Every structure is written in C-alpha cells, then in structure tokens.
Amino acid sequence: xxxxxxxxxxxxxxxxxxxxxxxxxxxxxxxxxxxxxxxxxxxxxxxxxxxxxxxxxxxxxxxxxxxxxxxxxxxxxxxxxxxxxxxxxxxxxxxxxxxxxxxxxxxxxxxxxxxxxxxxxxxxxxxxxxxxxxxxxxxxxxxxxxxxxxxxxxxxxxxxxxxxxxxxxxxxxxxxxxxxxxxxxxxxxxxxxxxxxxxxxxxxxxxxxxxxxxxxxxxxxxxxxxxxxxxxxxxxxxxxxxxxxxxxxxxxxxxxxxxxxxxxxxxxxxxxxxxxxxxxxxxxxxxxxxxxxxxxxxxxxxxxxxxxxxxxxxxxxxxxxxxxxxxxxxxxxxxxxxxxxxxxxxxxxxxxxxxxxxxxxxxxxxxxxxxxxxxxxxxxxxxxxxxxxxxxxx
Length: 394
Known about the structure:
This protein is of the alpha+beta class. It folds into three domains: 11-144 and 245-289, Jelly Rolls (Sandwich), CATH 2.60.120.10; 147-239, no CATH class; 320-391, Jelly Rolls, CATH 2.60.120.10. Helices cover 29% and strands 31% of the residues. The chain has helices at 26-31, 64-70, 72-75, 78-84, 109-118, 148-157, 159-165, 167-175, 179-192, 196-211, 218-230, 235-238, 290-296; strands spanning 7-10, 12-14, 20-21, 39-40, 42-45, 54-57, 60-63, 90-97, 103-105, 131-145, 242-248, 252-255, 261-273, 279-282, 315-318, 326-333, 336-340, 346-352, 355-357, 360-362, 367-370, 376-380, 384-391. The longest helix is centred in the middle third of the chain and has 16 residues, at 196-211. It is elongated and about 65 Å long.
C-alpha cells in the first residue's frame, strides 16, 4: 500500500554506443561506482516500459510501472490520472555523451499516434516528446535550422555542398527564401542522400579542402570530428543547415515537435514527455525515415532560445510551456525549503551532495518519488547540494 511519504527509486542505465566510457564515465561517477570499458549513456528515471525504474516499498523493490498502474490515484493524483492515464506523464534522464547522438526530430501527438499505428517496430509508442536539456557541466548541440541567409552563405562557401544539392535546387531556394523554400531544399538534400556514391565523393572532396586550409572554422572542425565518428553520412552536410549551440553549466535548451536537433557532447539532465519516439536524419547507423522526417519538420529557423540559470537565487525555474512537466534546479546550502505537491506526483533527483527530504536521505545520483498522497514536504542539507525537482503543471 502506498503511504504519504517519499519513496526511493532504483534507476537503470542505457549503454548506447555514444555514451562516456571507463573510469571517468560521468554516470558511474555520479552514482558512486567505477565505470568499466563500456558506454554509460543514459540513466532513466520513470516508468517508461522500455526501462522502468523500481520503487522501494516496505523494504522490497517493485517495478515502478506496475506499482503506478496498481495505485494510480495515490501516486499520480486523481487529476493527473484523468488527464494522462495511469502512467507518469514525464521521463527524467541523466544523459552523458562522448560522441554525437543522431540528428533527429520528434513527432507531435497526432503524428506519433499515426506512426505507432503504421510502424510500431520503429515507433514504439504513441506519444509526442517535447523535451528540455539542462547542462550539468557543458553541452554542445545542433538545434534548429540556421537563419536562411546563413544557410545560403554556407552552400556558396562549400562548392561540394552546392554540387551535391545541384544548381536548380539551390536557385529555387534563393528565389523563394522562406519556410516553404527551406522545406523544398532540405527535402532535396535528404532525398539525394540515397545516392551513396555522390555523397561519398562530395564529402571526401570537402574533407580534402578543409584539411588543406591553414585554419579551420568551428563548423569545419566539427565536420571533421563527425566524419571521424560516423564516416560517410548525410549528417555531415546537415550540419551546415543547423545552429551550433554551446551551453555552460545551468543553461538549457528545449525542443518542440518538428525541431531538428542532436546532442554532440556533454552531460545533461534531460526531461521529456514519457516517450521514446525518434525520427532520425543522420549521424546514426540506425533506421532513418527520410520521408517521415521531411514531412514532420516544422522548418522554423533562427537561433534557438537559451534558458539561463538564475545565479542570484537558489532556485532556477526553467520556464517551458509543456503540460507534462515543469523542472526546477535548487541549490541548497545549510538551509531548507518547504513544498506542496498540490496532490500531484513529484520526483526529486540529486546531482551533488547529500540532502534530506523529511526523514529520507537523498545522496548524489539518487532519486525520490513524492506521491500525490503526500501534500507537504521539506528539503534541507547541512552542506552544499544540488537537486532537480520535477512536478506537473496546473
């Protein structure tokens, strides 16, 4: 039986190839054990069926998904069950990338339902996936399309890219420099990626040209880096269409449905709607769905908004308009905080130090579930500690 008290969660790691490895791997160090020679990519915190957490109830571990389904009102709260059903509406992660993740986008809710219905093998659930990434130390990423003038200049700057696209396609874009023009140009780029020999020829030619330069730009260094990671891949040309973003600790970016993005390197807290739906564009040996990708992109362009940490206060509210979750970063230093759950589920994740939630100790890397039954709780610490608090909006 679920009571009005915090519950410890046991969370599990996804060992995707792009994760950090060995003794210096970020996730093992965060959790307090020594990493081995294998990748530690993501720590999942939630009840997603692909890798559900476990919850410690009466001294025994139980599958969190099953417990939530058995006690939905007690854990989630009646209003959440009515809105989202008997599952946690968000999924929380620690993500640690040594190599680039695939360039990808996520479907909106209607598209997700249709994709799952028609191809459940590649689209394992029917939910959308708005998400936020908060840098724990730093994050390099590709996010959203660059300004259209910048894309035009990039194509003119690199003849190999222009030759790959073709004069006709490029000239149409210059004449119709708009969202529709970008859609037509990018769709052409992705379609032509099916010509493997042409792609190989133009990428190898550009590599030679970059290597013969005395000094390389950030884009050119990244192009070579991604080639060393993934070889001949259309993602290397997609790079010149997307914004390069570098975040410092505490800064965040968020991505809505239809926004192309890829995390390149860094360690983050990531929170998203409870989904694992991904439509991939490049930098991956996995399934790429070019037709769906070009169809569901929004083709919004311009620099993405970076959310800043509030350095003057102990709490940073990352303001995103998602109905599934909201997230706060809280720094605790010999002080205490009191919160009301408003009878809705919350999850607390510690990323530094040790703190106390009522009578429960929360160590670095651990997470606690605060059930809806628990109306009020307090957090305090005797030393410097940092937590992330995830709750569900009104």
